Amino acid sequence: MQLALGEAREASSIDEVPVGAVIVNADGQILSKAHNLRESTQNPVAHAEIVAIEAACKKTGSWRLNECTLYVTLEPCVMCMGAVINSRIKRVVFGAADTKTGAVISNYGIGLDDTLNHKPEITRSVLEEECSQILKKFFEQLRNR
Questions:
Q1: 53-101 per-position pLDDT tens digit
Q2: Model's pTM, two decimal places?
Q3: List 7, 16, 49, 75, catalytic entry
Q4: Which residues, listed in sequence order, are joined to residue 123 by a DSSP beta bridge?
Q5: Which of 8, 62, 96, 124 has the highest local Cβ count within 10 Å?
C-alpha cells in the first residue's frame, strides 16, 4: 500500500485526483504501478486501477490476473470493480472507503456475493488514514485555488 500511496502522491503532483494502484503477482513481484490520469489524458476511464490492470495484462501477456493482488488507495468504483471481476484479480486491498462512488462496501457490494462469475477477496481500511488524508488535502487545496 505504501507504493500505491507513492503513486497517489505522484498523481497529486500533476493535478490528478490522488489515487494510486499497484498490482502484485503471487510471488510478490510488482507487475504494475499506476495513478489516475483522467485529466492528463482526457480519458474518463483512466482510473488508477484500470491503468494498472492494463499494464499488468500487457506485462503478463494475459487478460487473466488470477493470482494477483490489487492494492489501491481508494475503494474502487463500479467501472473499476467491473475490470477487477473481468480480469479475475484474486484479491483487492484498499485504503479509504468512498461513500460517494465506492462500489465494494460503500455502495452496491460488487464482488461481495456470488452473483457474478468471480468473487475477489476484499481487504479494506489498509493505511486508511494516510489514504484518506492525501485526498482531503488535495481537494482542500483545489477549493482554495
A1: 999 999 999 999 999 999 999 999 999 999 999 999 999 999 999 999 9
A2: 0.96
A3: 49
A4: 93
A5: 8
Neighbours of 88 (CB within 10 A): 16
**Sequence-separated contacts (24+) of 31-40 with Cβ below 8 Å:** 31/55, 31/56, 31/59, 31/60, 31/65, 31/68, 32/56, 32/59, 33/3, 33/4, 33/6, 33/7, 34/7, 35/7, 35/8, 35/10, 35/11, 36/11, 37/11, 39/14, 39/15, 40/14, 40/16
- Reading phi first (left if > 0) and then psi (alpha if -120 to 50, else beta), residue 15 is in left
**Start-end of H helices in the chain:** 2-13, 38-41, 48-60, 78-87, 128-143
How many residues does the structure list for the chain?
Answer: 145
Phi–psi pair at 73, nearest 5 degrees: -75, -20
